[in-house]
Amino acid sequence: MGRLYVVATPIGNLKDITLRAIDTLNEVDFIICEDTRKSKILLDTYQIRKEMISYNAHSETKKIPFIIEQLLQGKSIALISDAGTPCISDPGIRLVNEAIKRNIEIIGIPGANAATLALSISGIPTDSYVFEGFLPQKKGRQTKLKELSKEERTIVLYESVYRIEKLLKELSVYMPNRYIVVWRELTKMFEESWRGYPFEILNQFSLKTIKGEFVIIIAPKKWKENFR
Q1: Residue 90's pLDDT is what?
Q2: How far apart are alpha carbons 188 and 112 in whole angstroms?
Q3: What domains appear along the chain, each with residue ranges and CATH number?
Q4: Contacts of residue 132, Cβ cutoff 8 Å, sequence gap at least 6
Q5: 121 — phi, psi (to 5°)?
Q6: Which residues of the chain have a pLDDT value below 70?
């Protein structure tokens, strides 16, 4: 029986890949990835020549039976995402669960993750936190924000360029007195961060064109900036 490797890849800077990840990607029979065009950039950088199979939220139901069959036949397969650690706010959980049901060995190859990186350099308490990833885009979004406004621990969110200003406006309403740190394009050339209260950062955003992917760290309810 084959093995399924869940391999973390860089979140921006292509140098942020482990030696073990490179070895694994070179050794497997083929690689499952979200977008073959994006993954090809990484694989070409490290001269990894392997067949790639696209696998995303829209195709996973159709692709899982084929992948499982390959594993049962003894093939070794690596699962990667476009950036970071697979299955963390990314497709892959269904495949991993199906592999578990079939007693297929699953091996994790750790590496970059935007949430843990942002937490480590935020200056906000990290002894206890809740990771929410992307909030619902429409249905249930306000309900989730109301729930999180009562959360005592540090909160970690992901957001896209299309909704970051909307999120800051919502945080200004639901959590106006909670200190936050917003990171844009972590590890990339134009990495940038903002610190303050939601309305303060929103005002800064209105003065410039903002692009990229975002990680938002929301301080614990009872924590204040001057506690540092």
Answers
A1: 87
A2: 13
A3: 3-109 (3.40.1010.10), 114-227 (3.30.950.10)
A4: 144, 148, 155, 156, 157
A5: -115, 15
A6: 225-228
> What is the C-alpha to C-alpha distance for residues 188 and 192, in angstroms, rounded to an integer?
9
As given in the structure block, the two tokens for residue 75 are: 């093939």
Per DSSP, the three-state class of 197 is coil
Question: Contact at 8 Å (CB) between 169 and 151?
Answer: no
Look up tokens 């950062």; give the residue: 201
Residue 44 burial by Cβ neighbours in a 10 Å radius (0-12, 13-18, 19+): exposed
213 φ/ψ angles, rounded to the nearest 5 degrees: -105, 145
- pTM recorded for the entire structure: 0.91
pLDDT tens digit string along 127-185?
999 999 999 998 999 999 999 999 999 999 999 999 999 999 999 999 999 999 999 99
Instruction: Tokens 């003894």: give the residue.
Output: 74
Q: What are the residues facing 156 on neighbouring strands?
A: 131, 217
Angle, CA of 14, 81 and 15, to the nearest 5°: 10
Find residue 226's DSSP bridge partners. none
Query: Using alpha carbons only, how large is the chain's radius of gyration in Å?
Result: 19
Residue 190, judged by CB atoms within 10 A of its CB (0-12, 13-18, 19+), counts as: exposed
- Say if CB 197 and CB 170 are below 8 A apart: no
Question: Strands 214-218 and 192-196, how do they pair?
Answer: unpaired
Residue with tokens 């269904």: 94
N- to C-terminal Cα separation, the chain = 53
Report the C-alpha gap between 127 and 154 in whole angstroms: 9
